[in-house]
Write a structure and sequence with these properties.
This protein is about 20% helix and about 40% strand. By secondary structure, it is an alpha/beta fold. The chain has two domains: about 270 residues, no CATH class; about 55 residues, no CATH class. Helix 2 packs antiparallel against helix 6, helix 7 packs across helix 8 and helix 8 packs antiparallel against helix 9. The longest helix has 17 residues. The radius of gyration is 21 Å and the shape is globular. It starts with a helix and ends in a 7-residue tail after the last helix.
Amino acid sequence: MSAAAEALARAFAPAAEGEPAWLAERRLEGLRLFEAAGLPHTKLEDWRFTSLDALESLELEPAPEAAPVDSGLADAVRAEVGPALCALFVDGREREIPAGEAEGISLEPLTRAAGNDALGLQGRLGALADPKRRSLTALNAALFAGGASLEIAADARPERPIHLVWLQSDGAHAAHPRFAIRAGAGSRACVIEHYVSGPGARGLCNPVTEIELEPGARLDHVVVQDQSGDVFQLGALAARGERDSELRTTSVALGGRLGRWDVYGTLAGEGARLELNGLYLARARQLLDHHTTIDHAAPRTTSEESFKGILDGRGHGVFHGRIHVRPDAQQIEAAQTHRSLLLSDQARINAKPQLEIYADDVRCSHGATVGQLDVDQLFYLRARGLTLARARALLTFGFAREICERIPLAPLREALERRVLNWLPAGDDA
């Protein structure tokens, strides 16, 4: 293993007192799998454009058990969402867990939920996010020290969204948050995962989220990655939808020195639907990578995937989207698009849309485009008095806004639109 991988593996500690034997065994299995595979490297096909060599320069340490809370940052993040059931975590460890039983929500620390196992976590934890498939997931299985279990009761309709705020503390720390979500049959809910850090953070955040949707459940899921410029955010989402369920997940990646999001979505029941949206903005030497796999495992399922990237300076984007249709998954519909906008000559993108179809009664499409701002549109705006910088910012914002508009919460949508505008050159004046 590399030095960084060895340092991460050394953070493994025996099971905490009171932790069930089955969880201790899962941790050991995760450690063995990670030690065998090590950190991903560019000789692997799925990582050939994304090098983790820069992690070697960091002397990563386990996150402190009681890092101070940046209350100003936490309050600012809460304000972007507005009234919500807000759970606060620092380096993955829970600090504030609200009570939501009156709204049909059960939210508790993951280790406590695993200890009493009233929710059947022994059979569920790791069932979707397979540690054999991804070494970073195995590392998370071995080292997670916080996170939560969220249960949405059958037919529940919570009026407020569930807002999960993950703060990365200052220092070169490695944190491994874990989150398990189950939406009961016929329920409707909205969940936001919000990853942020202050300017002194320069470590690793390796979160894993598993989402289960029971028949007829509907879940809006938003992931906002707004880490500082020295944080490596290497997250994964694994989701499974049963009959007539619907998951709509939207990712907005704004920060981090290197950001990676691996998504595995399985449509397991007839009538299940998955909508996967993403927007990422990279500049300087920032690298943002998205790898998605949508598995149509049942007939008459639907998926719609739309990603957009905006790259400036030496920003580097990577997108690999894969749609898999199983032999018995007839009468499915799947559409995948990736569009990227290059604002400088040094920005670059590596995009690979992919279809694997083993059924014959399907409607599938995919495509990727790479381009720059339209010179005719720029001329039109400049002829009406706009400066070149403001015209470029306005057109770029229009390109990004299509994804922002898919965020269901108006306060968060408006806050992210402001962030996009401020990110653009001269955007705050546009």
